[in-house]
Design brief:
The chain is built from 14 helices and 8 strands. With 379 residues, it is α/β, with parallel strands linked by helices. The protein starts with a helix and ends in an 8-residue tail after the last helix.
């Protein structure tokens, strides 16, 4: 082969080098838009303890928003309809899940003391990762030592704040490992024996989607072969609710009405969701058919707007256009159900067409309206 190559003219050698370069470029371009698959899922949301129950809730339009249960806080003591009332919450409502204190510590080899000091978000995440792996047909014991990454979106730390604000002599080592955001992700990798990249992100309402974007990037860059993506939020104590009352974010009528002319604010929801991602090319070794295919995703920041928490219409539209361009797709292909359209209906209708807006509305609107705004789940 060496002798044969030496007989090529300089022009032929240049042509071969160019062809090889084109192949490498195409390989890189293909990797950037390589489809990924949702191999398994599990969730606990208000009114829905499984993916099937969640789908049924959305289909039937069940309203899972309720008055705050007494186990969280006493409305008689803390509720005041005046959003400016000091130390009070101006909503009676939210989306809450049951049994957040239930956990089979022995199943995971965790002591009673450690489990007691561990954030219920971490406990639920361990259980739901197990269920999501079952849903995917992947055996957890065969993933030990595998290049599986863990990507967590988390934004609430009620349980840890309560512990650290209590008597100093009650603070244990488990108070830290049981509540730090980094440990929420690290514990999953430790428990299941994963050796891929691990991270936890707090970007408020977009936390889960940013975690998903990180997982997709890691899969496409071959940093990992499987990715576990977790979004978690529990509203256990009043401080966050008091903060949001001061910002006058809560709906006076106690309901989310996403994309509706009657929208007047929101109420908080909670829950934990897990998806297992793999590359379409190798299916991650899953024994079950994939639940969905993920074409692409992207992240940016709104930058300057009329306020720190106010969406920037132009920035959101720019991101969607960029993701569509990178995916070699057009809004005309009715792919908007795969992305979250900007929050303002006028923006969506004017820039992307009413049909695309409506397809996205059905999946995003129902989750907000019937369960409240679950911050870590993403928008």
């Amino acid at each position: 082969m060496h002798n044969e190559a030496s007989t090529f003219t300089p022009l032929q050698k240049a042509a071969i080098a160019l062809r090889n370069a084109e192949r490498r470029i195409k390989k890189l371009e293909d990797a950037a838009i390589e489809p990924l698959e949702v191999l398994g899922m599990a969730c606990r949301f208000p009114g829905a303890s499984s993916v099937e129950a969640y789908a049924k809730l959305l289909r039937e339009g069940v309203d899972a928003v309720t008055e705050t249960p007494i186990e969280r806080w006493d409305l008689a003591e803390i509720y005041d309809p005046n959003p400016n009332a000091s130390g009070k919450i101006n909503t009676r409502y939210g989306g809450f899940i049951d049994g957040v204190d239930e956990f089979d510590a022995a199943f995971f080899g965790i002591s009673a003391l450690e489990a007691k000091l561990m954030d219920p978000q971490q406990r639920l995440a361990l259980q739901l990762v197990w269920h999501a792996l079952e849903d995917s047909g992947l055996r957890p014991d065969r993933l030990r030592g595998s290049r599986t990454g863990v990507f967590v979106g988390i934004t609430q730390n009620d349980y840890g704040m309560e512990q650290l604000a209590g008597p100093r002599e009650d603070i244990r080592a488990y108070s830290g490992t049981g509540n730090g955001f980094c440990f929420a992700a690290g514990r999953i990798a430790f428990q299941f024996g994963f050796n891929g990249p691990v991270s936890a992100v707090d970007t408020a309402c977009s936390s889960s989607l940013v975690a998903m974007n990180q997982a997709c990037s890691a899969l496409r860059s071959r940093e990992c072969d499987l990715a576990v993506v977790v979004g978690m939020q529990l509203n256990l104590t009043p401080p966050m609710q008091i903060f949001l009352s001061r910002t006058q974010s809560f709906s006076p009528t106690g309901r989310c009405r996403a994309f509706d002319a009657d929208s007047d604010g929101f109420v908080l929801g909670e829950g934990v969701g897990v998806v297992i991602l793999g590359r379409s090319a190798d299916n991650g070794g899953s024994l079950s058919p994939p639940r969905a295919r993920l074409l692409n995703c992207g992240v940016n920041h709104d930058g300057p707007a009329s306020g720190l928490t106010v969406p920037n219409q132009n920035a959101q539209e720019s991101l969607i256009r960029d993701v569509l361009k990178r995916s070699k797709r057009s809004p005309d292909e009715r792919l908007a159900r795969h992305i979250w359209i900007p929050e303002r209906e006028k923006s969506s209708n004017d820039r992307f067409g009413k049909s695309e807006y409506r397809t996205s509305q059905c999946c995003s609107r129902n989750g907000f309206c019937h369960q409240g705004d679950i911050d870590a789940r993403g928008k």
